[in-house]
Amino acid sequence: MGQMPKTILLVDDEPTLLETLAWNLQNAGYRIITARDGASALEQAQATSPDLVVLDLMLPELDGLTVCRSLRQVSDVPILVLTARTGELDKIVGLESGADDYMTKPFSLGELQARIRALLRRTRPDRTGEEVASGNLRLDLVSRRATLADEDLTLSPKEFSLLVELMRHRGAVLSRDLLLTRVWGYDFYGDTRTVDVHVRWLREKIEQDPANPQRISTVRGIGYRFEG
Fold first, then answer.
1. CATH number at residue 184
2. For 86-118, what is each residue's pLDDT tens digit?
3. Considering the domain boundaries, does residue 19 fall inside one?
4. Residues 12 and 81 grouped into a single domain
5. Residue 201 contacts residue 159 (beta carbons within 8 Å)
6. Are 138 and 112 contained in the same domain?
């Protein structure tokens, strides 16, 4: 028997775009759930537990940023946000609200599908080893559970994968471009600012003093190193 199709929740208030995306993604083998406003999106997410959410930021009732923050409080489902805004500040705000990836309109269906594949691929359990640990910081690679001093850490899928990559190569300097490739996927179209944002979030969760990190150090002009 084949694998069950992945469920994608599409959220957009433009009926034509929503129908077009739904039709194309269904043809690509995904199970599609749709919503046209923020409140309906949260209801559908709770009812269907999707594997990924494609979320427009400009929505009636509840805007996309509010939906994104609300989802992040209860779920680590991968979130790909869509917006017509092209400014860097808007991108940063979207990422800081809990999104895993960001696309500006207009975009190609090919690029959208590539990003969806990358997000779904990078959130699958890693079974090459059962655990990665450094002191009181432990990552269970099968359950994707993270603990610090035996207390559960709430990490997004990308935060978890990024921390795994850094911890597996402790002592080595990993460039931002390399981290983009290994964590976000070879077909990710983002920029290195994405890595910086996620490293900052990790430091806030695993460092005793995030302003003076001891676990994840910055190597100026190159990238990051996990000291371990």
1. 1.10.10.10
2. 665 566 666 767 788 888 888 889 989 988 988
3. yes
4. yes
5. yes
6. no
**Rounded Cα–Cα distance for residues 138 and 183 (Å):** 19
CA-based torsion, 10, 14, 18, 20: positive or negative: negative
**Which tens digit of pLDDT belongs to each residue from 149-180?**
989 999 888 899 899 989 988 888 888 888 88
Q: What is the CA radius of gyration of the chain?
A: 18
DSSP H/E element including 25 = helix 15-27
Mapping DSSP onto H, E and C, the string for 159-218 reads HHHHHHHHHHCCCCEEEHHHHHHHHHCCCCCCCCHHHHHHHHHHHHHHCCCCCCCCCEEE
Length of the chain: 228
Lookup: tokens for 41: 């999106």
Q: Residue 125: which pLDDT band, with cuts at 50, 70 and 90?
A: very low
Residues 115 and 181 occupy one common structural domain: no
**pTM reported for the whole predicted model:** 0.59
Return the closest-CA partner of residue 164 out of 146, 191, 190: 146
- Between CA 139 and CA 227 the distance in angstroms is 16
Residue of 58, 28, 25 lying closest to 41 (CA atoms): 58
User: 143-177 burial, b for 16+ CB within 10 Å, e for fewer?
Assistant: ebebeeeeeebebbbbbbbbbbbbbbeeeeebebe
Read off the tokens for 138: 């432990």
Q: Percentage helix, strand, coil, to 5, in the chain?
A: 40, 20, 35
